[in-house]
Write a structure and sequence with these properties.
Oligomer: single chain
Low-confidence stretches: 341-355
Strand order of the largest sheet: 3-4-5-10-11-12-13-14
Order of helices and strands: EEEHEHEEEEEHEHHEHEHEHEHH
Radius of gyration: 19 Å
Largest sheet: 8 strands, parallel, barrel
Mean pLDDT: 93
Length: about 350
Amino acid sequence: MTTSFEPLNLAGVTLGNRIVMSPMTRSRAYGPGQAPTEATAVYYTQRASAGLIVSEGIQPSVVGQGYPNTPGLHSSEQVEAWRRVTDAVHEKGGVIFAQLMHTGRIGHPSLLPDGLISVAPSAVAADTKVFTAEGLQPCVTPKELTPSEIQQTIADFADAARNAIAAGFDGVEIHGANGYLIQQFLSDNANLRTDEWGGTIQGRIRFGVEVAKAVTEAIGSERVGFRISPGNPFNDIVESELTGLYGELLTALSPLGLAYVHLMEGPDRELTVQLRKQWQGTFILNPFTHPNPTGLDALSLIEDGTTDAVSFGALFISNPDLPQRLQQGGPFVTPDPATFYGGDERGYTDYPALG
């Protein structure tokens, strides 16, 4: 029986344990450069005992930003600032991947420079609100990407991946979940295209697959993970035919030899089991435990073979030394929901589902 505290070979990188820190939006990249600060380095260094840290969502381009003060990986200033973070994590023996997150139609013009507006597969506004300097604002109708702009967006992901490696990250996680751009292409209600980038299942998965191909060509497949959240309605997403849609997506990703797939689970454990059986590589699971944070019980999912590793979000906020606490069976500091983004005036300091 495999336990949570045995090493895991992640495409040639040995993880000290199978406890993964889930990506969580931090909103601490203050200033026009959208670069991480010293507080970012402290935050991740405190959590370096995780087998793998997946960073907060990092936009691969200027127009990929959907929240205030989130960092990018599209400028030399950002690369230099991230290098200070990764150096600090590595000094503590940690392994850290950068999550590349293009928010697509989730955003607001006030967050973007030079009159830019958010982009998406189709010109359909998300029925949700986002935080801005003026408070909560409804999402606006995004600009529909042209075929040439789709290709440029794919290239932006590849360039950001190269920048991540230059900044010292051990790899990248492509964010294909939580209602952001890649899942918008997968969805029925955000993607109304009838060209090769929409319509059929093959058309809807194409963007995510092409992003993965470009990123693996840029930095090597052993440095690339891919996150999915089948059926997650967050950010006004509607998906049908989940088994067929995500089965085809994993089939198309399989030949690339990715380092892992990271599944943010919904209430359907049967779908998780099906996708786990299909995916022959490393499988990381962020299990469905709503309304409670993922806790000690989740380690049994490694022991029974449901997953190779488990990712924890909320508990890592209040327990920086979480792997040690899990190994000892506690105690755990209960995370304060008031520090999460809750879609209201409470603030948006941390929220696992954003990453």
